[in-house]
Write a structure and sequence with these properties.
This protein is an alpha+beta fold. It has 4 domains: about 210 residues, Aldehyde oxidase/xanthine dehydrogenase, a/b hammerhead (Aldehyde Oxidoreductase, domain 3, Alpha-Beta Complex); about 170 residues, Aldehyde oxidase/xanthine dehydrogenase, molybdopterin binding domain (Aldehyde Oxidoreductase, domain 4, 2-Layer Sandwich); about 190 residues, Aldehyde Oxidoreductase, domain 4 (2-Layer Sandwich); about 140 residues, Aldehyde oxidase/xanthine dehydrogenase, molybdopterin binding domain (Aldehyde Oxidoreductase, domain 4), CATH 3.30.365.10. The chain is about 25% helix and about 25% strand. Helix 13 links the parallel strand 21 and strand 22.
């Protein structure tokens, strides 16, 4: 293969390094009204009075909207394919505010200074209500986050607003309780992963305007253009035909932009005023009123034998969706369905509750619930290995899923492509596992520890998501690839171009990728759930194959021979032996030109792809870290990662995905922390307080690929976008335990906690 599994340079690489990419604010109309949101200081309150008189008098103010001025139609901001599992529990503005930072009023003006002045002059009288701030007591709490009668759930996900339940459910296979009774060892532990911020470079931002036909046009930094269209139509109570969504370049998403966080506010302003409008979230707004990872508490019960065989796993996940239900019913499922199947057990049970609270609502974040579940399950397996005196690798070799195994906890799917064991052996070899002790005292007194973990994810949402591509042959023989998925910096435009170029046997520069625009792009669910390469990539492969057939058909017509008597080598259509001894040929450019006059064979093809399975990528990680026992400072010296993502279409881009995910996982494990004050507000409202790691903060990240071949994917590819964040959490937690001698069940593990544990171990007072 020429382009598949090749380190092709990103198509937008030069534009990126020369500062040329066009982001939302670069293409927004220059006369946009500036839109900002007045936010609630209370976690739970009713707006009794809101006085906007003085604010409206400010020079340059165009309009101020309150809950009285917006459609009273419930919707969800979650970007998800039909049927929508998230409850319809929002208005654009509501009389009831449900978290500190919730929207109270929308202000639009000619310039930012005018809007800022007006925001300060709005007077609001609140009836402060008792909030639900402890998610442990939210279920069946007498205080309801959503007491309204027009709340509704479209899918049977166990939601009940009168019980503060966004979702609830159970899945099982085998007699868990019976198997547990027959086990030599039964262990139980509860693991807590706090809410985490995606911290993408570009904050939430949207511009809106009306076109010549009175349709509202949305320029948005989003992962889900087609879902944005549906959501805004619902929120604004207008037909979907009246909404067009255009995605310019976006500066990162990581799942945050799978939720319609900001789009509704300028949209309603444009609908009310007829004028262009835009909103650009500050970093503070992106940290206090966005869509962070769901806080989850995962309780794992494990039954095993003395020889290390794991026979049963029992999980209960309590998920805090916050004030609204975006992605609440779906993220929780991954905490069990993407952790339990890594092990071949006799029985499993997975139960969960997703509860409403008066916290900032949660959303999608890379790993999407699997991250939390894998932290719990892998930490428990490491505990079991320690209890039995076994090597953590050995206990995994005994129990892990292999190729051909059926995975009851993964919807009964079969692992048709799996190199998990090879990944674990590779990661161990890369870190030098056999040559190092789990705990090592260095000459300077610092302690080094080793830890390991495995992970799996999925490739698109089976029986649900759709990827689509249009490819057309244009003048002079180049191709336009038109997509509805969204490149977030991941390089998917390049990946799809590589697949098309491989099939069409053309130079990569002959491929132009365009998207996404809901008016011109074929329907695509969007870029989330690790779907783009697997789904849209397969659609691209199919589309290119069909276009080859069309090129051959027209070429044969122009040569005056049957269609089965020609072949195509990417440059020319030429006759084979079936057409006689004399070889005839016609150049691709001439075929392209001929298609524009006197012929009825279209050189444009659209293909869609959905899948009834979601082939999991697998990964193993091993970490060596060093701890200063006096200060608790923890340094990741080396992280080794081996990934089975099927065929890496572009190894360079795949490697960058792994490295980026590892850094996010390291941050979750050690530095990124969300805490709340007594009123429920988030304390970490800037990147001075919310500490994301940088590449220079840690040591070597070593990445290798153990490629399987997935028959249902394009050229054997699966996915890589999400799985890469999942191993650092349990691996680092175990390495800290091996170094310090204390297990941590909550993330992040801070220097203070480590220093305290070290002092306790030495019998000293921690000051």
């Amino acid at each position: 293969m020429k382009y598949v599994n090749a380190p092709v340079m990103k198509k937008d690489a030069m534009a990126l390094v020369t500062g040329k990419p066009v982001y939302m604010d670069d293409v927004a109309p220059k006369d946009c009204l500036i839109v900002k949101v007045l936010r609630s200081p209370h976690a739970h309150a009713l707006i009794e009075e809101i006085n906007i008189t003085n604010a409206l008098k400010q020079k340059g103010i165009e309009c101020i909207l309150t809950y009285k001025d917006v459609p009273h139609r419930r919707f969800t901001m979650a970007g998800q394919t039909f049927p929508e599992p998230s409850p319809y529990d929002r208005y654009i503005l509501d009389q009831r505010v449900r978290f500190v930072g919730d929207a109270v009023a929308i202000v639009a003006g000619e310039d930012e200074a005018a809007v800022d002045r007006a925001l300060k002059l709005i007077k609001v009288k609140y009836q402060v209500l008792e909030p639900v701030l402890d998610y442990h007591t939210a279920k069946d709490n007498p205080v309801l986050v959503h007491p309204e009668e027009d709340w509704k759930a479209l899918c049977p996900v166990g939601a009940d607003n009168k019980r503060n339940l966004c979702a609830s459910g159970m899945d099982s296979d085998g007699d868990v309780d019976g198997v547990m009774k027959d086990c030599d060892i039964v262990m139980e532990g509860t693991y807590h992963v706090k809410a985490m911020q995606q911290s993408m470079m570009e904050t939430f931002r949207t511009a809106t305007y009306l076109d010549t036909y009175g349709r509202i046009n949305i320029l948005s930094s989003t992962q889900i253009p087609f879902h944005v269209r549906r959501i805004l139509a619902n929120a604004l109570d207008i037909p979907k035909s009246k909404v067009r969504v255009i995605k310019p370049r976006i500066g990162g998403g990581f799942g945050a932009k799978q939720t319609v966080v900001a789009e509704v506010y300028p949209a309603i302003v444009t609908m009310k005023t007829g004028k262009p409008a835009k909103i650009i979230y500050t970093r503070e707004e992106s940290l206090i009123a966005s869509s962070p990872r769901h806080e989850m508490e995962v309780t794992v019960k494990l039954g095993a034998m003395k020889d290390g065989m794991i026979r049963a796993l029992d999980l209960y996940t309590l998920s805090n969706t916050g004030a609204f239900g975006e992605h609440g019913p779906t993220t929780v499922g991954l905490s069990g369905h993407k952790s339990i199947p890594m092990y071949q057990t006799e029985a499993f049970r997975f139960q969960y509750d997703v509860v409403y609270t008066n916290h900032m609502s949660a959303g999608a974040y890379r790993g999407y619930g699997a991250t939390q579940g894998i932290f719990a399950v892998e930490s428990m397996v490491n505990r079991l290995a320690d209890k039995l005196g076994m090597d953590p690798l050995e206990i995994r070799y005994k129990n892990m899923t292999h190729e051909g195994d059926v995975m009851p906890a993964y919807y009964g799917e079969t692992a048709n492509s799996c190199k998990l064991e090879d990944c674990l052996r590779k990661a161990a070899d890369m870190i030098g596992w056999e040559k190092k002790p789990l705990r090592q005292v260095m000459p300077d007194g610092k302690i080094r520890g080793l830890g390991t973990a495995m992970a799996m994810q999925g490739s698109a949402i089976s029986n649900c998501d759709v990827g689509s591509v249009t490819i057309k042959l244009s003048d002079e023989g180049f191709y336009n690839v038109i997509v509805g998925c969204t490149d977030m910096g991941t390089g998917c435009d390049t990946i799809l171009a590589q697949i098309a170029a491989e099939v069409l046997e053309c130079p990569i520069d002959a491929i132009t990728v365009l998207g996404a625009d809901t008016d011109s792009s074929p329907y695509d669910s969007g870029s989330y759930a690790s779907s783009t390469t697997y789904l849209t990539g397969k659609a691209t492969e199919r589309c290119a194959l069909r276009l080859r057939e069309q090129i051959c058909k027209l070429g044969a017509e122009l040569l005056g021979v049957p269609a089965d008597a020609v072949e195509f080598d990417g440059k020319e259509v030429f006759t084979t032996e079936k057409a006689g001894d004399e070889t005839k040929k016609i150049a691709l450019a001439d075929i392209a030109t001929a298609s524009m006059y006197g012929h009825e064979i279209p050189l444009e093809v659209t293909e869609s792809r959905t899948a009834h399975i979601s082939p999991p990528p697998f990964m193993a990680g091993a970490v060596e870290l060093e701890i200063d026992m006096e200060t608790g400072e923890t340094s990741v010296i080396n992280y080794a990662a081996a990934v089975d993502c099927g065929t890496p279409i572009n190894p360079n881009l795949s490697r960058l995905q792994v490295e980026g995910g590892l850094m996010q996982g390291i941050g979750m494990a050690l530095t990124e922390n969300i805490t709340r004050n007594a009123q429920g507000g988030v304390r970490e409202n800037s990147l001075m307080q919310y500490k994301i790691p940088t590449r220079i903060d840690y040591g070597h990240l070593n990445v290798e690929f153990e490629s399987s071949y997935e028959p249902s994917g394009p050229f054997g590819a699966k996915s890589i976008g999400e799985i890469v964040i999942n191993t650092p959490l349990p691996a680092i937690a175990d390495a800290v335990y091996n170094a310090v001698g204390k297990r941590f069940y909550e993330l992040p593990i801070t220097p203070e906690q480590i220093a305290r544990a070290a002092a306790e171990k030495l019998g000293e007072d921690f000051i």
